[in-house]
Q: What sequence folds into this?
């Protein structure tokens, strides 16, 4: 059984939606950010601060590429789309679902940008990060779910399950 892989910006709700989707579909759940933290024994922001963004992306790709995904719901880190090796693994073993939100919603949800563990270059803004990543999410998406500020978690899970059938 193929995995269901959630991709999208930080603040898009991948982890929250992923847990509910896994419960709804009676599947196991993996959050790749937590896998990285456990594997490295550090918070994401600590890894980025100590190693730099490119090294973090390599660590992320290595951790993601090592996962057995069959049948799981997988919430990925927003930066997973920067490494072809990670995306190839995810797409070989799963169906990628892009949780797409307008920038204004993402900006409203992300209050702790400096400490959240978001892989971004020094001086990069959230807006430029959003603009840079959107085409990559679209490129890798098998399914795109447009999520608005008014969508509930339950509505989003229902839309994903319908799109998968």
A:
């Amino acid at each position: 059984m193929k995995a269901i892989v959630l991709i999208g910006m930080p603040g898009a709700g991948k982890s929250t939606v992923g847990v509910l989707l896994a419960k709804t579909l009676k599947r196991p759940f993996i959050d790749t950010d937590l896998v990285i933290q456990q594997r490295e024994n550090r918070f994401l922001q600590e890894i980025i601060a100590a190693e730099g963004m490119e090294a973090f992306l390599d660590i992320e790709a290595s951790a993601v590429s090592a996962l057995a995904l069959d049948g799981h719901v997988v919430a990925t880190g927003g930066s997973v789309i920067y490494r072809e090796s990670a995306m190839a693994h995810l797409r070989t073993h799963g169906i990628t679902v892009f949780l797409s939100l307008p920038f204004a919603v993402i900006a409203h949800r992300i209050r702790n940008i400096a400490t959240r563990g978001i892989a971004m270059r020094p001086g990069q803004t959230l807006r430029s990060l959003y603009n840079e990543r959107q085409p990559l999410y679209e490129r890798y998406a098998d399914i795109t779910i447009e999520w608005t500020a008014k969508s509930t978690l339950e509505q989003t899970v229902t839309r994903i399950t319908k799109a998968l059938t």
Notes: The CA atoms of residues 53 and 154 lie 34 Å apart. The chain has eight helices and five strands. The chain has a mean pLDDT of 90. The chain has one domain: 3-154.
